[in-house]
């Protein structure tokens, strides 16, 4: 007894991506395996390529307008916070953007990522100094918590773990030094050539956050 193929629902974006794979020269079998579609379905998508391309363009245009609306509302909120001297960080802007996007029925995949925040600040000429000036009496604990939240979000969005996080410091290791009370030191000091009295190397120490990998 043969099993029936379970019909799959392909979005306009899926169909458009299939057309892009075709244009890049991908073979039919590869496309069918990736999207789990039959040959007849694939042929139908190819036949309707012009219609699918137009629909995709309309959707992307609507998505861009929605994101622009979110940007405008978030910027108005930012200006109100600035006027009232309300405490604000990058994480606060991201959280507000998510709430506004939900209220405006914006794009369901909008995540207010760090990349979006960077672009938002560039679009409205907002610098890190501007945000800091709006924070009144922010203590070190608040700043540390904000950084931790931003950093954890960055790790999650990038798919990184603590094994990928490294910290490096360097120091000077003095392996030869002449006493300041010696004649050699006084002669070197008078001639301005103190290098003859000392020698050192610069050492770099580096390890990841979990401590499983060190470099020295």
Mean pLDDT, rounded to whole units? 76
Radius of gyration over C-alpha positions, nearest whole angstrom = 30 Å
The termini sit apart by 65 Å
Strand content: 5-15%
Q: Give me the strand/helix succession.
A: HHHHHHHHEHEE
Note the total helix count: 9
Overall shape: elongated
Structural class by helix and strand composition: mainly alpha
CATH-assigned fold name of the largest domain: Arc Repressor Mutant, subunit A
Q: How many domains is the backbone divided into?
A: 3
Major sheet size, sense and barrel closure:
3 strands, antiparallel
Number of strands: 3
Q: Helical amount among residues, as a percent range?
A: 55-70%
Protein name: Tigger transposable element-derived protein 7-like
Organism: Bombus impatiens (Bumblebee)
Subcellular location: Nucleus
Domain HTH CENPB-type: 58-130
Task: List key phrases describing it.
216 residues; mainly alpha; Arc Repressor Mutant, subunit A; 3 domains; three-stranded antiparallel beta sheet; 9 helices; disordered N terminus; CenT-Element_Derived; HTH_CenpB_DNA-bd_dom
